[in-house]
């Protein structure tokens, strides 16, 4: 079955998804509508000419926030040519701006009835996902040139204002009666404004760069590969489109996690995407660090899975959160965001030299370290575990593989919880090593630095003893509630290379598994190896190929000097680019490239998605061997086949803008 064509435009937390005609009808299972800050402000938006739906001649997203649909009046037969053409030009900002152009190609005067049907169900994003009903009441107001659609539940209010100029308005539509002469074009500008009933943050502050400025500020890529060039530009465009202000006082814009379900501040996603983008757009990292520090937990809260010092998982602003029906105000059910916060803080300082930010965030970094030391280890065995304290609406799995069945034994049995997942132990190791450097070099706390280095070394030794499976030659996916290893061959051990926790004597075995036929599909490394009963190439975390997962693996291979293997995985992902319009999706189906000659996006994959967008950037960094040193940038290129020349000019660093040549 071919997936229906959708048209998507977005600007941070505001986005619209429609069919190729530009209509929103909610006819299928795919999410449609105009959304703003976690609620749907248009659930119907359908254009009709003389009572009939239009036919699509062409639809294109000219930019992330612009789209054009070229339509015609249906004639019902191939033997009669249409005499009306309609163009819909759409732009998204904090609301919707749409221009309608109706042109007559008839030889005589024609009368046209043009109707724009509208409606707003004001569904919370969780209600859309879970197909829940509303608890409040809908209302409407009509004016001579506009209609207001509203929703109220106690003190909570949202409104959608449709300003379409003079016409005949009802509570569900506006109608225009046109009289067109031959060759005449009728034009109407329509504005849809959203009202949240509060002083919400703007999508983009006035001093933040527009897309053209954003692209101009990024390093200039020089390459012989058109595919790499297109992937690079699309990555930058998508990251720019996903930027938003998490609150009115935010210090810059952060990347939302992904469209359509995750257009919000996420700890893990925003941190990893910002890390990926550091040598290209370092402002994302600074803004993300400040935004997450501002929301860092300060107390225990079972409903929100919070403990002092913990970094949030997800922050939402919709109705269900407002009334305490969901814990995302924010929700802290993430076991990895806190160590990743420390990892990014160090990496940001290494590249930027911004010690002022590191000093300003020192209390937050120390609180994060305290969380690692005092609260992350649930049973005192020296490893970080998770177990939700909110069984009704909390996440049962709290690593990056957070679907309900992602931590699974090879035979398909769900591992008992609490879990200690392997990659998070690596993140915690890296976080301690990196924070030790900041303590010594920026905060002047030698005692803390020495203690963190000792703790990191002890964790590494303890981890290898508990997680390494000598009979299988790889690391366990996790330890279960009984401290038994989950002996599943999975991609998570590639993250261990990125963190540096793997001793050299185990690297060859790990690399051999990652590039073996069971794990490497030809388009990338699978989340879970084929040949195990638990493997499913279309299971969200149990057999698919995630670009960001592979990017971290490539970075890990590069760290350990396995550059040929890194280039092979990078080549596979670059090969996928042309088949997905050079926009890598959240995940690909894990079927073998030998069996499926084209990469197949996972059916409900987010696109654009922040860490998928950052994947191309991280791949370029890795295959160039790009790093920052004491006196500038250094490179050790090992390029994938068919890339040819690859260089970056104007890389932002602590030493100014430099080139890789």
From TrEMBL:
One biological process term in Gene Ontology: carbohydrate metabolic process
SUPFAM superfamilies (alphabetical): Six-hairpin glycosidases
Domain Putative glycogen debranching enzyme N-terminal: 11-189
Domain Mannosylglycerate hydrolase MGH1-like glycoside hydrolase: 325-575
InterPro entries: 6-hairpin_glycosidase_sf (IPR008928), 6hp_glycosidase-like_sf (IPR012341), GDE_N_bis (IPR032856), MGH1-like_GH (IPR054491)
Listed Pfam families: GDE_N_bis, MGH1-like_GH
Protein name listed in UniProt: Amylo-alpha-1,6-glucosidase
Species for this entry: Nocardioides pocheonensis
Lineage: Bacteria, Bacillati, Actinomycetota, Actinomycetes, Propionibacteriales
């Amino acid at each position: 079955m071919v997936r229906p064509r959708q048209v998507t435009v977005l600007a941070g937390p505001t986005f619209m998804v429609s069919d190729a005609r530009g209509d929103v009808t909610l006819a299928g299972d795919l999410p449609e509508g105009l959304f703003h800050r976690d609620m749907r402000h248009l659930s119907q938006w359908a254009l009709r000419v003389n009572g009939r739906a239009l036919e699509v001649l062409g639809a294109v997203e000219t930019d992330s926030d612009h789209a054009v649909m070229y339509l015609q009046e249906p004639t019902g037969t191939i033997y009669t040519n249409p005499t009306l053409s309609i163009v819909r030009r759409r732009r998204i900002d904090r609301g919707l701006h749409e221009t309608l152009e109706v042109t007559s190609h008839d030889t005589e005067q024609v009368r046209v009835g043009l109707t724009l049907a509208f409606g707003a169900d004001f569904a919370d994003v969780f209600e859309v996902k879970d197909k829940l009903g509303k608890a409040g009441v809908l209302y409407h107001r009509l004016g001579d040139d506009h209609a207001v659609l509203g929703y109220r539940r106690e003190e909570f209010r949202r409104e959608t204002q449709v300003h379409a100029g003079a016409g005949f308005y009802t509570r569900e539509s506006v109608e225009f009666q046109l009289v067109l002469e031959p060759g005449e074009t009728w034009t109407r500008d329509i504005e849809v404004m959203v009202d949240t009933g509060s002083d919400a943050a703007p999508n983009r502050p006035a001093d933040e760069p527009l897309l053209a400025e954003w692209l101009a500020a990024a390093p200039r890529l020089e390459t012989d590969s058109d595919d790499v060039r297109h992937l690079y530009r699309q990555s930058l465009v998508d990251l720019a489109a996903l930027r938003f202000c998490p609150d009115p006082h935010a210090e810059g814009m952060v990347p939302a996690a992904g469209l359509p379900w995750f257009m919000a501040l996420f700890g893990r996603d925003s941190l990893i995407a910002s890390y990926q983008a550091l040598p290209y757009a370092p402002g994302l990292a600074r803004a993300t660090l400040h935004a997450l520090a501002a929301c860092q937990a300060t107390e225990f809260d079972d409903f929100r899975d919070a403990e002092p010092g913990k970094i949030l998982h997800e922050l939402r602003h919709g109705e269900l959160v407002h009334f305490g029906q969901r814990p995302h105000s924010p929700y802290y059910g993430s076991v990895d965001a806190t160590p990743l916060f420390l990892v990014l803080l160090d990496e940001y300082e290494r590249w930027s030299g911004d010690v002022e930010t590191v000093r300003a965030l020192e209390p937050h970094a120390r609180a994060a370290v305290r969380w690692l030391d005092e609260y992350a280890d649930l049973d005192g065995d020296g490893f970080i575990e998770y177990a939700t304290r909110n069984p009704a609406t909390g996440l049962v799995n709290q690593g990056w593989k957070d679907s309900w069945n992602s931590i699974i034994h090879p035979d398909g049995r769900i591992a008992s919880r609490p879990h200690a997942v392997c990659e998070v132990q690596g993140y915690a190791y890296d976080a301690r090593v990196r924070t030790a450097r900041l303590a010594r070099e920026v905060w002047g706390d030698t005692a803390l630095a020495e203690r963190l280095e000792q703790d990191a070394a002890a964790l590494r030794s303890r981890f290898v003893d508990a997680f390494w499976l000598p009979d299988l030659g790889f690391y366990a996916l996790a330890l279960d509630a009984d401290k038994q290893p989950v002996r599943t061959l999975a991609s998570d051990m590639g993250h261990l290379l990125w963190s540096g926790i793997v001793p050299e004597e185990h690297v060859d075995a790990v690399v051999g598994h990652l590039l073996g036929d069971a794990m490497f599909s030809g388009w990338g490394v699978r989340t879970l190896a084929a040949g195990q009963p638990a493997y499913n190439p279309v299971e969200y975390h149990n057999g698919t190929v995630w670009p960001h997962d592979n990017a971290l693996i490539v970075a890990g291979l590069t760290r350990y000097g396995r550059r040929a293997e890194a280039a092979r995985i990078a080549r596979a992902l670059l090969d996928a680019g042309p088949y997905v319009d050079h926009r890598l999706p959240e995940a690909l189906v894990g079927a073998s490239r030998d069996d499926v000659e084209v990469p197949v996006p996972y059916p409900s994959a987010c696109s654009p998605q922040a860490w998928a967008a950052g994947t191309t950037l991280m791949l370029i960094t890795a295959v160039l061997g790009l790093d920052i040193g004491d006196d500038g940038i250094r490179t050790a290129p090992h390029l994938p086949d068919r890339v040819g020349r690859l260089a970056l000019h104007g890389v932002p660093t602590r030493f100014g803008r430099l080139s890789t040549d």
